[in-house]
Amino acid sequence: MPLSAPLKVGFVGLSSSGWASDVLAPALLDASLRSKYDLVAVSTTSPTSADASAKLYSEKVGHPIKSYHGDTSQIANDPDVNLVAVSVKAQFHKQAILPVIEAGKDFFLEWPAGSSVKETQAIAEAARKKGVKSIVGLQGRHSRTIAKVKELLASGTIGPLRSTHVFAHIGREVTSWPPLVREKASYTAEKKNGVTRLDVPIGHQLDTFTYLLGDFTSLTAIDATLYPTGTLVDDDGKPTGKTFPSETPDHFVISGVLSSGLVANLFYRGGYASGPETGRRQYVWEIDGEDGTIRLESDYLYGAFTNIFEPKLYLNGKEVAVEGAGPVGSLDSVTTAWREFAEGHGKFATIEDALKNRRLLDAIERSAKEGKRVSL
Question: What values do phi and psi take at 119, rounded to 5?
């Protein structure tokens, strides 16, 4: 049931820069959501950054905002807060969100909702036990283009569905994973932190993929590391001279059968140079039906980040205009997710969806390691 009064939000990790300040907070504070949400408190790692954030957002929302720092139990136990949003590095997700759940507060948690399937499971179990509601930052399913694809599939335009394939590239210019990694973001290259290529961009894509077409019933996977050495670069992309051994694969081939009966094949490659001079295709997703084909395609450098950027849509080879879809769709998609959560219905992802996705990623890793088919 929709709420009659705005949800009072406490935001953990809302500082002056980053995903939370660039996308999550602007979406939450969108004019269309003023009757649904009210930001009342922020929490960061230090009193200085917390006070700065509280001052900034007090000006934005037009009333004083409380400031907390350190242990999230403080903001979680604020009686004026009914929803706590957490957007911090994945390795801190579990320790940040469990006090929120223990306090009985509904929550938003950024994907990947923990640094491993074990952590995501612990969070999901705690949420079930307390009976709290959740929303997870898997906003790709709210893309206007994806909504149009769902509409086309439901209409039967391409007939009974038969197969699907994804062909994607996450280039070296992204500088989040080897061969080139920004020095300030070097934590992304460590597997233990749970933000590898498989965890983040591929994890986001797989959520959208299964949201549209159904879950995998079984799969086989192959991975490969073609760039065994990473080089740290500065903010301008220039090598610092520091190198390190890569801990995670840069290529994945995933094949399987979906619950809907489709045969699926996905090929993710990473690390090559991009740019128009290479002629490299960044992202293609085709869905084949008996009578036609739906194709999503992007030549943009970050086109494989489907949770952020809207691809072009083609039906039987002809481009389909999608009303309201711009090249960068993340702000619009996150706003839609916030709206649906406040209204109490819709397709927003929950911690249970996050756990399902984490188990899928774990199955991919196990299949590649053991060289055998894995059932889900």
Answer: -70, -40
Q: Is the peptide bond before 311 cis (omega within 30 degrees of 0)?
A: no
Q: What is the pLDDT of residues 304-344, one digit of tens each?
A: 999 999 999 999 999 999 998 887 889 999 999 999 999 99
**Contact of 375 with 216, CB cutoff 8 Å:** no
3-state helix, strand, coil in the chain (%, to 5): 40, 30, 35
- Average pLDDT rounded to a whole number, residues 80-101: 98
Is the per-residue pLDDT at 171 higher than 50? yes
Where does a domain end: 109, 138, 167?
138
Residues 214 and 313 in one domain: yes
CB 1 within 8 A of CB 34: no
CATH number of residue 42's parent domain: 3.40.50.720
DSSP class of residue 310 equals P
Domain final residue pick, 85, 103, 138:
138
- For tokens 């927003």, name the residue: 348
Of the chain, the percentage scoring pLDDT greater than 70 comes to 99
Backbone dihedral angles phi then psi of residue 96, each to the nearest 5 degrees: -80, -35
